[in-house]
Each structure stands twice: as C-alpha cells, then as structure tokens.
C-alpha cells in the first residue's frame, strides 16, 4: 500500500513538471504577456477618460517586457509612476506603425513606445510624446512572440479599441 502511494506521488510530480515544461515550450508566456498588456492599456484608457493625464511607456529591460504607467494627478507636483514587469525573458515584442509593413523592435527604457489616449474621445493619440519626428504617426499593432505562439494586439486609432488575435 505504501509503495502504491509513493508511485502515485512520483507520477503526479512528473506529470506536473511535464505540463509546466510544455507551457513554456508552447509559448504560454507570450499569451500571459499579451493579456497583461491588453489589461494595462484598457485600464490606462479608462484612467485618461476619467479626467487624469495618463500614458504607458512600453520597453525592454533585462530581456523582459516592462510597462511604466505614468499618471499626472490633479494638484500634485509630479506624476505617479508605476513600473510593471509583464513579460518573461525570451518573449519578443515588436510593433508596427500605421502605413508600414515591417515591424520595429521595441527599445529600452531610454526609447520606449509611448501609448496615450485622447481624454475627450478615448481614441489613441499620435506618438508625438516619443519626439517631434513621431508626430502624426500611430501604432497599429503590437506583436508578442514566444516559441511558436504569436499574439497580436490590434489598435484602432480612431476609437481606442484594442483586439487580440
């Protein structure tokens, strides 16, 4: 009886390890990362429409995807800044601008992709917060990849809607 319990415990341990390994090999981290980024973007849009000035700065730090949420609150001298590590090492993140066919590699903290919303309509703002040469340009897609899993966040410029494929 004791031998049977030990065998069952070992099988459960091996099975759990195999399923965990399969999740990493199949790209489960890409899906988790895409879901977290989508959630942060939707929350940032709601914050902006709630009459606060807010933006997201998306960048790579230590081979991981990070998002800095910057919220300018009323009556405070400086903005409230929250940094979130949402992607694991090895998750590749690229983005595509409207009117372009190629994807650009996401930069580090000194050159992030900055996503912001228009307070009155909830639509995406242009990328002018990234510098004057980005004025009038919009991010259209963010692609997140790991192993064989690819998730694409499609950004609808005029409405601020985001869909995941």
What does this structure look like?
The protein is an alpha+beta fold and 165 residues long. It has helices at 2-25, 28-49; strands at 53-61, 64-72, 80-85, 92-97, 104-105, 113-116, 139-146, 149-156, 161-164. The strands form two sheets. A five-stranded antiparallel beta sheet has the order 5-4-7-8-9, with helices on one face. A four-stranded antiparallel beta sheet has the order 3-2-1-6, covered by helices on one side. A hairpin with a 4-residue loop joins strand 8 and strand 9. The longest helix has 24 residues, at 2-25. The chain is elongated and about 70 Å long. The N and C termini lie far apart (50 Å). The relative contact order is 0.18.
Chain-wise SSE layout:
Elements: H1 2-25, H2 28-49, E1 53-61, E2 64-72, E3 80-85, E4 92-97, E5 104-105, E6 113-116, E7 139-146, E8 149-156, E9 161-164
Antiparallel strand pairs: 1-2, 1-6, 2-3, 4-5, 4-7, 7-8, 8-9
Features:
single chain, alpha+beta, 5-stranded antiparallel β-sheet, 4-stranded antiparallel β-sheet, 2 helices, about 35% strand
Q: What is the molecular shape?
A: elongated
What is the topology, as strand order, of the major beta sheet? Answer: 5-4-7-8-9
* Total beta-strand segments: 9
- As residue ranges, the low-confidence spans are none
Q: Pairing-aware structural class of the strands and helices?
A: alpha+beta
